[in-house]
Amino acid sequence: MTTRVPFPVVDEIARHCLQEDEPETVHIEVHLPGRLDRARLRKALHEALNEHPRILMREAPGPWYRRRYEWELTAGPDVEVVTFPEPGENALRDARTRALACAPALTASPPIRLEVVEADAPAARGTATVLILTLNHTALDGPACLRVLATAAELYGGRDNSPATPAPPRRTQEPAPPPPAPSTWSRPARVAPGTPEPSPGNGLLVADLPLPHRPKGAPYTVNDQLMVTTALTLADWNREHGARPRPLRITMPVDDRPRDATMPIGNGTRLVEVTVDPAELALPMPDLLHRTATRTRALKARPRPQLGHGAALLTKPVTPVAWRAALTRGLRRAAAPWTSTTLLSNIGRIPYPLDFGEDGGTAHAVWFSAPARMPRGLTVTTASTAGRLHLALRWSRTLLGPADGARLRELFEQHLHTTEVTA
């Protein structure tokens, strides 16, 4: 008998709000110095899927009056997951475009695909192969799929791909009271429109930056530096475009899952919202970093359902799921003015070597990008490897264009440098 699993809260809300123009995809991009054997890679990934069977799922069919969406777990893939596009000058660009524009189907197991792009000139940046992993965010998140990819790397190369360092222990002491923040009932700033493109969908810019310096023993983290950088970047962007200053509200995913083979596969992050008053951005940098660190620590420590209490109530299976879907979409439209300004997803230091053995080598750059549909219209995603920060800016084309992305990247780099205080 086929095993079925009811959609968790995050999956159901995402399923209610799907849009063809702006698919809910997560893009993961891994750069390797060597070439991979095609047959071995396919075999390794298929074995990795079997080692993490929760990823082998598809949406089960059902009548309109059903009370829940359900995942149907499968014994194996319904479709070929690994493809090898023709090499060429635009192969990587085209693979990125597909990752943003075409979501893997929810009705075929698993809801992911892996494109293996072979670079024409590996000597230029030390990259011979780029893995483009695209996942349907209704079913899975980036950290979960990275765990599966780490298992595939270990099976392919025969080398240990366990997390390089254990996760830091959870804080047990009560966090300090956070500084006062603007009311969550006030409307946050929106990202000011730039020069949108005529076609719908998402645009993407990736950048490789130095990891910001942080003094030893500093009471703030790199994540706090990125939070401050994002706030300053958007405040400058809005000022340049004549927008009136308003509180910036930045959504931040928090992931408490272990990074080893026991990591639950699915959408496992919870969302917290960090609000920054425009006046705070004028504080001296050490004060701004300390204030941000206190606020984010308090928010992370506060128990909260993944999407908040309202989402948990909306997904109670007391009425047909089609009715709840219509209600959820209506509430989403009504709440658009109160949606956070942007989302900052900091994956942090990539915990796995992603070592594909002698021929593939070890990953030297990893980018992620999160969906950027309106009304936010912009997401900032960061990860780090080998002391480098890998930044992905992703935007809705109805809000921004490529030149706007380049300007945001420039502002981000400028402000990232200003967070490198010495005290």
Structure, explained:
The structure is a single chain. With about 425 residues, the chain is an alpha+beta fold. It has one domain. It has ten helices and 14 strands. The chain has a six-stranded mixed sheet, with helices on both faces. Helix 3 links the parallel strand 5 and strand 6. Helix 2 crosses helix 4 and helix 5 packs across helix 10. The radius of gyration is 21 Å and the shape is globular. About 0% of the residues have low confidence.
Range of helix content: 25-40%
Widest sheet: strand ordering: 8-14-13-11-9-10
Computed CA radius of gyration, to the nearest angstrom:
21 Å
Please summarize the sheet with the most strands.
Answer: 6 strands, mixed
Structural class label:
alpha+beta
Q: Which consecutive residue ranges, at least 5 long each, have pLDDT under 50?
A: 167-174
How many individual helices? 10
> What is the first-to-last residue Cα distance?
62 Å
Query: Count the strands?
Result: 14
Described by the principal axes of the CA atoms, the overall outline is globular
* Mean pLDDT value: 91
Order of helices and strands, N to C? Answer: EHEHEEEHEEHEHEEHHHEHEEEH
